[in-house]
Amino acid sequence: MDINKVKKQWQALSTNVEDIDYAVSGHDFNVCLESDKLRDFAALMLEEGFYLVDLMAVHVTPAIEVVYQFAHFETRCRVLARAFVDDKCEIPTISDIYQGANWHEREARDFHGVVFSDHPYLHPIILPEEDVDLKPLLKKEAGLKDVDAVRRKPPEPAPEPKPKVKPEVEPKAKPEAVKSQEQS
Amino acid sequence: MSMDIEILEDDRHHRYVLNMGPQHPSTHGVLRVLLELEGEYAMNLLPVLGYGHRCHEKIAEYKPVKSFMPNTARMDYLGALIYNHGYAQLLEKATGVEVPERAEYIRVITSELNRIQSHLLWYGAYLLDLGAFTPIMYAFDDREHILDILEDVTGSRLTYCYFRVGGVCKDIDDKFVTSTRAFISRLRSRFPMYEDLVNGNVILQNRLNDVGDLNPHTCARYGITGPLLRGTGVGYDLRRAEPYSIYPKFDFEIPTATKGDCMASFLVRFQEMEQSLRIIEQALDGLPEGPVMAAKVPKKLKIPAGDYNSSVEAPRGELSYYLVSDGSDVPYRLKVRTPSYSNLSVIPEMCQGMLLSDVVSAMGALDLVIPEIDR
Predict the structure, then answer these.
(1) CB distance from B306 to chain A under 8 Å?
(2) By CA distance, what is A52's nearest residue in B?
(3) Rounded mean pLDDT of B18-29?
(4) Is the ipTM of this complex over 0.85?
(5) For testing the chain A interface, which of B62, B228, B299, B328 should be mutated: the one with the most A CBs within 10 Å?
(6) Closest CA relative to residue B76, chosen from B343, B351, B345
(7) What are residue B306's DSSP bridge partners?
(8) Which of A149, B46, B100, B285 minimizes the number of CB atoms within 10 Å of its CB?
(9) Taking CA atoms, what residue in B is nearest to A48?
(10) Best mutation site among A129, A150, A181 for testing chain B: the one with the most B CBs within 10 Å?
């Protein structure tokens, strides 16, 4: 696999391809997709020999984000692809390209209510049949965050000592409260 | 739940639906499979999951990141320490906590003991499924030694919670080292016996050869990893492919087989136990002195905003934790990618048209642990 060639193909399909630091995030590339290019992207990934690691939904505003993780059997190349669902909470299925996505998509339907259009059998898999509308992993309004709040902040990853020092100072202010929390 | 059964006009064929599980002994837990049979051939399979769903991902969103460690052990109760390892590593990666070298050695030694223990249980239970009763007694005899060794140092026998962010909670002592060394020579001396007693057995050969048919492309489509993938000739092991912890320091092989049938993954698992012993031996030889916990681990562990992934090689394949953080000490979203979930999803394709007894062989070869599928 020629990574530069594949990267160019990703760029043609996506809105943004970003190199990320494997040592910090555990991924090599971050690819942002429009949902109509998703199936082309999945087909390309399969052709290049990537396997589907995982597929999941994250509830953020403005819309639920569906995250796809790919990796390769021969070289270390972890790819994170993201796409947002549309107004009707729909996104195209990739279960006919990556059959392993079938169950992951059913799980995302269970937990977040994401509808994968043209999925062959979008029935509850983990939850019982009667809990089809429960959608337990949707956030309550108070806990719901904007998508920018859960993204890595651009200036922060560079200075390394910072994250080490920062959390150290804060717990000193109220160590008692933390202790009781941990014990419970 | 119902299956859409095609009604056949030809009345020589009679299809009926058989429930296998959720209490069937060969499903090793609460997995239910609906089998559509034609005579003794399974024409359609529909696994039904969720009997052991315990909302681990939901729980993770409600408590501080460090308090989720015991939950990781309860997903895969056979690979608990490896699940601990992946999670500890995730948080260390996200917060930049450095782990002392001695702690990394202890992690590797105990993780590999845990891997052998898991493979031994699979070995006995799989053969039990296939109708061989005796081997499970031998396998459990050996496994008991590992449980005793790990009980001394971790305090529990199954759902270990031994690793912490920044190290391990208790140092190992001389007794651990001597009993582990004694166990290594014991298990080594037992391997020829296993090979004579089981691996060359003609009934086993007939039950496993050419049953189940996997190839690297199918594995990529379904996301199959672990011994099943290595049975198709792809030497993909995260300990080598994405070296983590101190695995690069050790000399070990990645056993592979090429046929992709049940026999291939059977032999891969069997050979992996020897490789794990080699790793433990080298780690015991090179065990450095020093602390087992990082000096400064904040009590309230705040994860900087962003997403993090940590993957380790569990006994059944790739285990990934994916954490989305909003900058607080409680995860915004934690997703656990468990190997058995992806591995099991191939069953409808792999077992179509198989004899019912071969379905048992094929499902046993997946080495299922149901709680990690249902989470």
Answers:
(1) yes
(2) B223
(3) 75
(4) yes
(5) B299
(6) B343
(7) B325
(8) B285
(9) B220
(10) A150
Dist. CA B290–CA B202, nearest whole Å: 51
* Token pair listed for B330: 């409680």
pLDDT tens digits, one per residue of B319-348: 999 999 988 889 999 999 999 999 999 998
Name the residue facing A49 among B94, B220, B306 (closest C-beta).
Answer: B220
Contact between B82 and B276 under an 8 Å Cβ cutoff? The reply is no
Structure tokens at B115: 């891997």
Hey, are the CB atoms on B345 and A102 less than 8 Å from each other? yes
CA distance B227 to B231: 6
- Cβ contact (<8 Å) for A179 and B299? yes
Q: How far is B373 from chain A (nearest CA, A)?
A: 9
Helix (H) or strand (E) segment spanning residue B310 = strand B306-314
- B56-347 has CATH 1.10.645.10 classification: yes
User: Do the chains contact at B220 and A137, CB–CB below 8 Å?
Assistant: no
pLDDT value of position A159: 52
CB contact under 8 A, B96 and A123: no
Q: What is the DSSP string of chain A?
A: --HHHHHHHHHHH-SEEEE--HHHHS-SEEEEE-GGGHHHHHHHHHHTTEEEEEEEEE--BSS-EEEEEEEESSS---EEEEEE--TTSEEE--TTTSTTHHHHHHHHHHHH--EEET-S----SSS-GGGTTT-TTSPPTTT--BGGGGSPPTTTTS-SHHHHHHHHHHHHH-HHHHHHHHH-
Q: How many residues does chain B have?
A: 375
- Note down the domain range covering A64: 3-183
In chain B, where the domains are located: 56-347
A145–B contact, CB cutoff 8 A: yes
- Does residue A109 belong to the interface with chain B, where contact is any CB pair within 8 Å? no
So what's the pLDDT on residue B295?
85
**What CATH number did the domain enclosing A37 receive?**
3.30.460.80
Neighbours of B241 (CB within 10 A): 18
> Given CB atoms, is A126 within the 8 Å cutoff of chain B?
yes
Q: Would you call B96 an interface residue with chain A, using a CB distance cutoff of 8 Å?
A: yes
Q: Determine the pLDDT at residue A178.
A: 46
The string of pLDDT tens digits covering residues B117-157 is 999 999 998 998 888 888 899 999 999 999 999 999 998 88
Q: What is the mean pLDDT of chain B?
A: 88
State whether residue A52 sits within 8 Å of chain B by CB.
yes
